[in-house]
Design brief:
It is a single chain. This protein has 357 residues and is α/β, with parallel strands linked by helices. The chain has a domain at 22-230 and 336-356: Rossmann fold. 28% of the residues lie in helices and 14% in strands. Helix 1 (32-39) crosses helix 11 (339-352) and helix 4 packs parallel to helix 5 (157-171). The longest helix is centred in the middle third of the chain and has 15 residues, at 157-171. The chain starts with 21 loop residues before the first strand and ends in a 5-residue tail after the last helix.
């Protein structure tokens, strides 16, 4: 089956029509979501990030009209922003989400200041979402798209979600009762990646073409249902090695048995040790790979190596000719929304909302 968007692609061969509307991206990192909007036909006119290295790699690949290197906290308070930023169709953002990840400390980290790996200023991560909403209140784009981890919908974090809804309402935006919980593997991305998307439409636009209002619908219906066939690792496999296992890791790999899911499984069976090398998960040829992390340690069950460059790019639907500008490819891809995932969402927002406004 042909996929709507190609997960094996290059920037040099891509056709970006830029005729669907203007987008500005916050917490833009290397530009994963930016490439998705471009694939869907949008014109991404600028970005914001606190990380100088990410700003540089973004500029290298996207040559943005506007680039802002500063915290979203101060950026949202500025009153000297270009006029064009007040004429956006979509304001996009992926507020840092580690404090809500099920793999992190969650509640223990809420309210604490943290420093990102590149050495930026300390920030309280769980307040950045509200700074992003403050920016939306200032700029008043037609639509706001905010992405976050699936853990935001679990446990005590649900109370945080309620506050997000209140903040959007006060900023002049309407959302559905529930945010969208999507899996990239059903959207034409060769990777299991579950993410939450808050998609809000400006209240005045919502009121213009609402067909019905009832207790179950507080915003125009936006259908996001994707049923593209899952992509097995065998479809993106490239037979070369650029990230071999170390001698110590190879010794553990040699002890594997069919059905093992990680090196932890081997260590528990062979040595009685739990939680050792948990991140070294196995990739099976006929399976869909798990979420790419910022420090990729997944290795092939059939070959003693980690994913190579081509496989990493395809797994994250990143272009094969992307210039990582000296940064680790797994870090950038693992920190990004897969471009094809964003492209699928953006094309639906245009078809169902923006094209009718």
């Amino acid at each position: 089956m042909k996929h709507k968007f190609n997960y094996n692609w290059t920037l040099k061969d891509a056709v970006f029509t830029k005729d669907k509307g203007k987008v500005f991206s916050c917490f833009a990192c290397g530009g994963g979501s930016t490439m998705g909007y471009k694939l869907a036909g949008f014109d991404v006119i600028g970005h914001n990030d606190i990380d100088k290295k990410m700003i540089e790699v973004y500029k290298e690949n996207h040559n943005p009209k506007f680039s802002f290197l500063e915290s979203i906290t101060t950026f949202a308070k500025r009153k000297d922003l270009p006029r064009e930023l007040y004429e956006l169709d979509i304001l996009d953002g992926s507020p840092p989400c580690s404090s809500f990840s099920m793999a992190g400390n969650r509640e223990k980290d809420w309210g604490k200041e943290k420093v990102f790996r590149e050495g930026q200023a300390e920030q309280v991560l769980d307040t950045l979402f509200f700074d992003f909403i403050d920016l939306a209140k200032e700029l008043q784009p037609k639509v706001v798209v905010a992405e976050n981890v699936a853990g935001l919908m679990m446990g005590n974090a649900k109370e945080y979600v309620k506050k997000i809804y209140i903040a959007f309402k006060e900023a002049g935006y309407e959302l559905r009762i529930e945010p969208y919980l999507l899996d990239a593997s059903t959207m034409g991305v060769p990777q299991k990646r579950r993410r939450v998307f808050f998609i809000a439409i400006r209240t005045d636009l919502s009121e213009k073409f609402m067909e019905q209002i009832d207790m179950f619908q507080i915003a125009p219906r936006l259908v996001l249902e994707f049923n593209e066939p899952k992509i097995s690792f065998s479809e993106i496999f490239k037979d070369y090695t650029d990230r071999p296992l170390s001698e110590n890791m190879k010794a553990i790999w040699d002890l594997r048995k069919k059905g093992d899911i990680s090196f932890e499984t081997i260590n528990e069976r062979e040595k009685g040790k739990k939680f050792l090398h948990f991140g070294h998960k196995f990739i099976y040829m006929n399976g869909t790979i798990n979420t790419i992390l910022g420090n990729d340690q997944c290795c092939l069950f059939d070959y003693p190596r980690y994913r190579n460059f081509n496989e990493l790019c395809s797994s994250g639907s990143y272009p094969l000719d992307y210039n990582f500008n000296g940064n680790k490819s797994d870090y950038l891809i693992g920190m990004s929304v897969p471009p094809v995932m964003t492209a699928q969402i953006a094309s639906n927002i245009y078809d169902q909302w923006l094209s009718k406004i």
